[in-house]
Amino acid sequence: MTVTSRDDRSIFGVIEDICEKYPRKPAIIYLGEKFSYSKMRDLVRRFAGALSDLGVRVNDKVMIYIANCPQFLVAYFGIQEIGAIPVPVSPIYTPFELEYMVNDSGAETIICQDTNFRYVTEVFEGNKLKRIIVTNLTDLLPWWKRTIGRALDKVPKGVVKKTSQVYFFSDLIRKYPNQPPKLTIKADEQLASILYTGGTTGSPRGVPSSHAKMLCSLKDYEDLTKDYILEGGDDVLLIAISLFHMMGQEAILGWGLGRGISVVLMPVPQVDAILDAIQMYKVTIFTGVPALYRMILGNDRLKSYDLSSLKYCWCGGDVLPSDLFKRWHETFRIPLYQNYGTTEMGCITLSPLDRFPLIGSIGLPVASKQIRVVNPDTLEEVPANKVGELLVTSEYGTQACYWNKTEETSECFVEVDGRTWNLTNDYVRIDETRNVFYVDRSADIIKYKGYRVSCSEIEAILLSLKVVKEACVIGVPDPAVGELIKAIVVLRENTRGVDASELIKWCREKLAPYKIPDYIEFRDMLPKSKVGKLLRREIREEERRRWLKGK
Question: Mind giving me the DSSP string for 17-37?
Answer without folding.
Answer: HHHHH-TTSEEEEETTEEEEH
